[in-house]
């Protein structure tokens, strides 16, 4: 595979970028639809590797999946009795953490596996929790097998979700279908990516499943309780993916240009929405018009930031790329759990930023990055580590560091159907599916 020469920006970019649907909302909607009382129609479905693997997995388990003949983002999901299957999780956290509970509700043997890198992602906690709730499972990491009996007892369970919020979301999504529901208590260091649990709770509420929560002394939610009951069928309209939007908005920030994203939701549980305040802290101007058009304009020089990214860890590669060229030393903290993401993102970012001549060091729970002017950095081949967000972060630096090439840019297909074409269209106005230069 030859590396993709990241297009350099000849000046400030000026573009409108139309983003496909959210990975996190799509995969939650699909799971809820498969467990619902009747058929659900999903529009704006993200069609990418992570979501297509979810569609394939649910179909393999017996769920009816029908695609519109005219719109690939419109899918009708018809629940059916679930049976044994082979499930390929790829590298998707949302599959490996959301589907074991669904598999335990199936009748039959459900074998899970995924990419080589997926086998090292933390899984034991969610599998142990399911065993406590009555499921029979062989294994503690991918590959593992769930011996579904058609029912899960449910009840109280304590988990340490400090390595991933997905442990809690994965139990919550199926909990209403457990015989006794589930009462989940977190015990351990703080749970990262809390907005993603709020997204799960919010979507369950829309599907008629209330989640009762309780907080600890610091005010952090540490327990979630779901009573047994039906999951309502819902016609879901998926919002644009704001975490993927962040990569494109970074192009405005890093080139001193302007990028506009239509359909920016007014209210959302997507943590990616926080990129707006992060870009403001870096020195960008932002604005939102009444029709939902978000505009971000970059400054002549970005300024360093000191940010706790624990709630929005998936934005880290994008933010780290911007800090690499910001004026001053930035500290990004609260993100030790990124060592268990698609790759060890703290190590990967440190290695690749250093490769370009930047200064980045790892701390216990984050990164310290001393910015350089782009002219003081040197183009090189930026490695992706099969991580879509590493690839897009490298592309952002490639706008201003001539000679940057991205190894395995195809890995962006995990959550973006056609990133290279969209990115190129944003930079130079060539025809692309979702981006255009103004
Ligand atoms: O539930 C979800 O959709 C996600 C939760 C988060 O995982 P972690 O809590 O493991 O960071 C996030 O990083 C991931 O991209 C998507
Ligand atoms: C951590 C991420 O993905 P996953 O859903 O595979 O955990 C991500 O998309 O940044």
Automatic annotation (TrEMBL):
Residues the record marks as active site: 314
Residues that hold 3-phosphoshikimate according to the record: 23-24, 28, 164-166, 193, 314, 341
Domain of life according to the entry: Bacteria
Keywords linked to the UniProt accession: Amino-acid biosynthesis, Aromatic amino acid biosynthesis, Cytoplasm, Transferase
Group of enzyme by EC: transferase
Enzyme Commission code(s) on record: 2.5.1.19
A single MF term (Gene Ontology): 3-phosphoshikimate 1-carboxyvinyltransferase activity
Pfam families: EPSP_synthase
Residues where phosphoenolpyruvate binds: 23, 93, 121, 166, 345, 389, 414
InterPro entries named in the record: Enolpyruvate_Tfrase_dom, Enolpyruvate_Tfrase_sf, EPSP_synthase, EPSP_synthase_CS, RNA3'P_cycl/enolpyr_Trfase_a/b
Pathway: Metabolic intermediate biosynthesis; chorismate biosynthesis; chorismate from D-erythrose 4-phosphate and phosphoenolpyruvate: step 6/7
GO annotation, biological process: amino acid biosynthetic process; aromatic amino acid family biosynthetic process; chorismate biosynthetic process
Subcellular location: Cytoplasm
Record's subunit section: Monomer.
Family the entry assigns: Belongs to the EPSP synthase family.
Protein name per its UniProtKB record: 3-phosphoshikimate 1-carboxyvinyltransferase
Native source species: Gordonia hirsuta DSM 44140 = NBRC 16056
